[in-house]
Recover the amino acids of this structure.
């Protein structure tokens, strides 16, 4: 079977975050990494390939600047077979809808049985890309999968909803986003990391996909950020490092706050 | 384009509280920008009296889309329902309070209409006759003032951002419409449901909650959390990650799809602090967080943050609490 995984490069979640006050855009300088949530989607695909469908081909698809190639390699090292990377200046500043349009165009080029996404991007925490892409591709969609079972012409997914767990069956081809609890992604061994660069990489421009630049990027964005402000915080956080006495310090704090007598 | 449509979700036979809160907020916004508010209710076997009662929460009119296919909590048929409502009403804005179903449905609708979409909005404001949302970003360190350039704008508001008034009364005219379903919307089928298990202590009533996340390492890691909670005379809470992984029962889950709690003390152990967890516990009196990673977002909204290993710290804390008697 053919599986596509949408992966995004994000600023390292463990690094300091900043928004450029001039452009209102997230500052993407510094260390970027593969969105940690997407590693679960790759792992899910690799397990399908190692298990029920050994003849599976795994394609990693991303929309992002040239520098995102590093994250693509990272995804390939984890078990992808080839990559499709849409890199185009005109895509810069795309909002959710713009990114979805480009992704859908890239995914439409090939026939996939299953299109997997992460539960959310660590930078934007949006969790709706699967719904956008599925509608543009006119495919069935299931989000936040806690497990995926392969059937004949379908996948069966267990997912959490507000009232408990639903089990749903989706006809393939379909779009599925996976919860971060679906598996424990493996760390690729060194040879796999070295080998990733040699796998087939396709780098495409919007024109290659027939995407009208006016419908994506900053020019085609349906949303506009008109300003920024600071939210009211919770107040001052007291941050301490454990030097062996953290438990005592927590007690002191709770007594001072009169939470414990 | 005119007017504001609010997607109202039916859960357990009733319009969800989150939907009612957004409906009321939409009514306030509608006053300010001069747009009437329509409640669009999708479901199966909708009751006329309950629909009309949405007038008490700010709806000028109610559009009901009633079909067995809309009763399973699946998002794509709801996209078709909303698209049918849009065709009839030509609304300028679509709003919904975040849930698993509504977020996906609004995404699908935005894609179909070519509408700009804002997720996780925490405030709705008027800018002249336009809507401008406040969308928080970067772990809630900044609020982006986000408006639309498309004829239709779609907004999903963060869970628990708007609470409905209790005992509201009023009535609005109800119109029923019928959608046509797209083939791909019928490609997903609900084949089973497990109800959230409601046995065990009621975490909503506990004064102290000791919460565990994936940092516990495995299901066995909950033993230290249970000990600590017992020492405090409190209860155990959990994140979705560990509930999904089967480490702890769903009834203990705090967050967007779990429970909303406000104990006097919340001790978060090995929890990163994703927004979807935060919305369920930010109302707690005092928040203590223990995490190995000094950049973990949970520290942004804790009163006391402890950078360290929970396996070292929590058992010691349990001893100290026990020693106080
Ligand atoms: C639509 C939607 C709804 C959701 N609903 C919910 C919800 O209701 N509730 C919810 O909780 N989540 C929800 N989520 C998921 C949420 O986004 C996060 O994925 C989840 O909360 C992460 O759980 P976690 O903190 O346990 O795991 P992780 O994010 O993996 O964090 C584990 C943390 O443990 C720390 N750690 C590791 N080892 C140790 C140690 N020895 N000592 C101390 N710290 C350690 C790590 O530094 C890390 O910060 C939802 C997501 C979506 C998209
Ligand atoms: N630029 C992108 N390129 C490829 N995939 C993306 C991109 N942005 C988002 N995604 C996918 O969509 C998921 C959810 O992202 P979001 O809805 O932006 O939070 C991610 O986990 C990725 O799988």
């Amino acid at each position: 079977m053919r599986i596509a995984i949408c992966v995004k490069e994000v600023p390292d979640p463990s690094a300091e975050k900043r928004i450029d006050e001039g452009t209102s855009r997230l500052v993407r300088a510094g260390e970027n990494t593969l969105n940690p949530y997407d590693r679960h989607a790759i792992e899910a695909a690799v397990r399908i390939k190692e298990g029920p469908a050994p003849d599976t081909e795994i394609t990693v698809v991303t929309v992002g600047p040239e520098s995102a190639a590093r994250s693509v390699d990272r995804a390939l090292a984890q078990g992808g077979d080839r990559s499709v990377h849409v890199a185009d200046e005109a895509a810069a500043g795309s909002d959710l809808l713009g990114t979805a349009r480009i992704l859908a165009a890239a995914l439409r080029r090939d026939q996939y049985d299953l299109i997997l996404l992460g539960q959310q991007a660590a930078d934007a925490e949006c969790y709706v890309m699967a719904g956008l892409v599925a509608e543009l591709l006119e495919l069935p969609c299931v989000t936040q999968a806690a497990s995926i079972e392969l059937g004949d012409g379908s996948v069966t997914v267990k997912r959490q909803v507000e009232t408990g767990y639903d089990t749903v069956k989706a006809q393939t081809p379909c779009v599925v986003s996976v919860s971060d609890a679906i598996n424990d992604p493996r760390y690729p061994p060194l040879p796999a990391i070295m080998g990733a660069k040699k796998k087939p990489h396709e780098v495409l421009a919007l024109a290659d996909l027939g995407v009208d630049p006016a419908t994506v990027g900053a020019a085609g964005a349906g949303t506009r950020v008109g300003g920024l402000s600071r939210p009211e915080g919770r107040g001052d956080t007291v941050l301490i490092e454990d030097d062996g006495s953290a438990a005592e310090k927590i007690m002191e704090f709770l007594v001072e706050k009169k939470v414990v007598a | 384009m005119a007017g504001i449509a609010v997607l109202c979700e039916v859960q357990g036979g009733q319009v969800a509280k989150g939907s009612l809160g957004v409906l009321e907020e939409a009514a306030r916004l509608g006053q300010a920008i001069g747009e009437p508010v329509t409640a669009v209710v999708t479901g199966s076997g909708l009751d006329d009296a309950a629909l009309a009662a949405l007038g008490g929460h700010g709806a000028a009119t109610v559009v009901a889309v009633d079909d067995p296919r809309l009763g399973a909590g699946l998002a794509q048929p709801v996209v078709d329902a909303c698209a049918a409502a849009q065709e009839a009403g030509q609304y300028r804005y679509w709003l919904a309070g975040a849930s698993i179903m509504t977020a996906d449905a609004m995404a699908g609708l935005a894609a179909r209409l070519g509408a700009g979409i804002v997720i996780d909005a925490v405030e709705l404001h008027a800018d002249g006759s336009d809507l401008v949302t406040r969308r928080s970003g970067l772990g809630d360190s900044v609020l982006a003032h986000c408006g639309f350039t498309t004829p239709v704008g779609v907004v999903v508001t963060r869970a628990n951002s708007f609470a409905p008034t209790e005992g509201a009364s009023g009535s609005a005219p109800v119109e029923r419409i019928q959608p046509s379903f797209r083939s791909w919307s019928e490609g997903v089928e609900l084949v089973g449901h497990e109800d959230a298990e409601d046995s065990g202590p009621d975490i909503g009533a506990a004064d102290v909650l000791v919460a565990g996340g994936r940092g516990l390492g495995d299901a066995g890691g909950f033993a230290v959390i249970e000990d600590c909670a017992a020492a405090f005379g409190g209860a155990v809470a959990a994140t979705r990650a560990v509930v999904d992984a089967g480490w702890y029962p769903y009834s203990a889950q705090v967050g967007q799809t779990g429970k909303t709690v406000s104990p006097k003390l919340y001790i978060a152990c090995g929890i990163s602090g994703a927004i979807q967890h935060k919305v369920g516990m930010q109302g707690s009196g005092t928040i203590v967080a223990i995490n190995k990673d000094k950049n973990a977002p949970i520290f942004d909204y804790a009163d006391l943050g402890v950078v360290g290993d929970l396996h070292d710290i929590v058992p010691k804390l349990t001893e100290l609490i026990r020693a106080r008697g």
